[in-house]
Write a structure and sequence with these properties.
- By secondary structure, the chain is an alpha/beta fold.
- It has one domain: Dihydrofolate Reductase, subunit A.
- 21% of the residues lie in helices and 26% in strands.
- The chain contains four helices and eight strands.
- It has an eight-stranded mixed β-sheet.
- Strand 7 and strand 8 form a beta hairpin.
- The model has no long low-confidence stretch (mean pLDDT 91).
């Protein structure tokens, strides 16, 4: 099975909904009100370049598929995003139009290889955590409290312990990147060496 990495923009109170403002919600675009600096931009570019594929829920996939195919940039981010394999966990999507996309079930994840990057996709994130399928959490935490909105993690059937692997501020506005790995049976997460 591949390595599943969840990478999210999240507020101090755990909201991940609408960081870029695409949904037109009053609080939309909260992530772009803060400067994450060159280090934050490099972190996001590096993680996409290192990923072997995207693993997405249907709603996030549909938003990405509507926005990304026409994008370009000087860093190769858009080219990589558009060309890499995309796996969509959905029971309703039957004919994905974005190139290199395959619809899968949670049970089929065991047959996928490489590092799979999960962005957005709240229901999928919850299901992956519940099944113990997350190899790493990468949270870019923005210093704001929204007080309302969808939280990244809802109620879980059981505790899911993680250990902090690294924490580093990026930019000048207090944005911090936190990397966590699940705690293994011996009480420790794996090293990032």
């Amino acid at each position: 099975m591949g390595r599943i990495v969840i990478s999210q923009f999240v507020t101090l109170d755990g909201v991940f909904e609408d960081p870029g403002g695409s949904e037109g919600i009053d609080r939309g675009g909260w992530a772009f009100r803060f400067e994450r600096g060159e280090d934050g931009d490099r972190f996001k570019l590096d993680e996409v370049m290192a990923a072997d594929g995207l693993l997405l829920g249907r709603t996030t996939y549909e938003g990405f598929a509507a926005a990304w195919p026409s994008r370009t940039d000087e860093f190769g981010f858009a080219d990589k995003f558009n060309s890499m394999p995309k796996y969509v966990v959905s029971s309703t999507l039957t004919d994905p139009e974005w190139n290199n996309t395959r619809v899968v079930t949670l049970d089929e994840l065991a047959g996928l290889e490489g590092e799979l990057l999960v962005n957005g996709s709240g229901q999928l994130v919850q299901a992956l955590v519940e099944r113990g399928l997350v190899d790493e959490l990468r949270l870019m935490v923005f210093p704001t409290l929204l007080g309302t909105g969808r939280r990244l993690f809802g109620e879980l059937a059981a505790e899911q312990p993680f250990r902090l692997v690294s924490a580093r501020p990026v930019g000048d506005d207090g944005v911090t990147v936190l990397l966590y790995q699940p705690v293994t049976g011996d009480g420790h997460g794996e090293s990032l060496a």
